[in-house]
Amino acid sequence: MKRATVHLIFGTVALCCAAVAAYDWMRWRHAEQVNRTVAEVVATSRGAAKQAPHAAGTMDDAPQVRLARAIALSKQGAFDTAGPLFESLIREQPHSETGRAALFNLGNLYLRQGIGHSPAGAVESLPMVEEAKARYRTLLRLAPDDWDARYNLERALWLVPETRSTSGTPDVKEQHDVKVRDPESKDLP
Q1: pLDDT tens profile 22-68
Q2: Helix (H, G, I), strand (E, B) or coil at 119
Q3: How far apart are CA 172 and CA 33, in angstroms?
Q4: Which Gene3D superfamilies does the annotation name (predicted)?
Q5: Quick check: 82 and 73 in contact, CB under 8 A?
Q6: Is 3-162 in CATH node 1.25.40.10?
Q7: What is the rounded distance in angstroms from the CA atom of residue 110 to the CA atom of residue 112?
Q8: How much is the pTM?
Q9: Burial letters for 77-89: b for 16+ Cβ neighbours within 10 Å, e otherwise?
Q10: Domain map of the chain by residue range?
């Protein structure tokens, strides 16, 4: 081989390595900005349950930041604000890790509402637990190895069991008697 050919090959390989390094550096900087913004969102959301709308195109629009904001709001009990955030993430990114996390946390939000934080009792808690079961089942279709979702689905099934009538005609009294078990522990993964 001629010396010029060797130098050309070496230069090409060096440029390719530099391009990969630059791409990784840019991804690292973006991840660092997202982490910083998530920390700010979580810190500021502790003081206020309602978040003001943010400008489009900022780092606050990143899916990870919106997920962190929704989780912080749901922990504060702002279910009406956190639910639509989770729903938008699920709609936008149904198969991504962020979408699956939003689906799991939305199921947890519905399960917490159904466990007994509702003043109306069993009448309002039954639909919430059913919504939670639907979210966990959807998540398990996407990620069958998600053990936290399996556990929470089992817990929701324990709270509101699904029994099928053996006779062909459903009993009207059975359909109207809604019984929700009282949970012993309130811990969710």
Answers
A1: 999 998 888 888 777 777 776 776 555 444 444 444 566 788 888 88
A2: coil
A3: 58
A4: Tetratricopeptide repeat domain (1.25.40.10)
A5: yes
A6: yes
A7: 5
A8: 0.63
A9: ebeebbbebbeeb
A10: 3-162
